[in-house]
Description:
Elements: H1 3-20, E1 32-40, E2 43-47, E3 50-53, E4 58-63, E5 72-73, H2 80-88, E6 108-112, E7 119-124, E8 134-139
Amino acid sequence: MSPRRSVGAVVLLLAIGAWSSPPATTPAPGKVYEIRMIGDADGYRFAPARLSIEAGDSVAFVVASGQPHTVAFDTTAVAPPVARMLAMHMRDKLGTLSGPLLLAPGDRYVISFAGVPAGRYPYFCLPHLALRMMGEIVVR
């Protein structure tokens, strides 16, 4: 195997390892709410799709079925200063406001909304966006 191919293989293995079991972030001192990520004969969806929380609460996104899933916030709907604050609470991001690829039932991704101002935060599953797998978190 050439050095270039070995480096590529190592990078690929590291990426797969990072995505296979993403660590949960440390929840804020508030409540922790759960949103299930579902894909089945009835379609792809978050349950519940709309959730109201208090500033300081956390949301655990949990794969129930139909994986892989992600949690990505709509960057056009979040003001840049708020996006930076929200991004600080998101570990192992694939993109600006996009969490890791969750591959197995039971995988969890926890996002703290500590310090995030009141507002509406639309989100979606990137692999299933065309199937309208979207939701909204409302911080009161």
